[in-house]
Amino acid sequence: MSDADRNRALLRGECRYCKIVHFYLATDMKEICGDVQVDDVKLRCEKCGQADIPVTCHHPSAAEYQTLMLRRLERIEFKRKIIWRDEPAWKRQG
Question: How many angstroms separate the CA atoms of 75 and 9, rounded?
Answer without folding.
Answer: 22
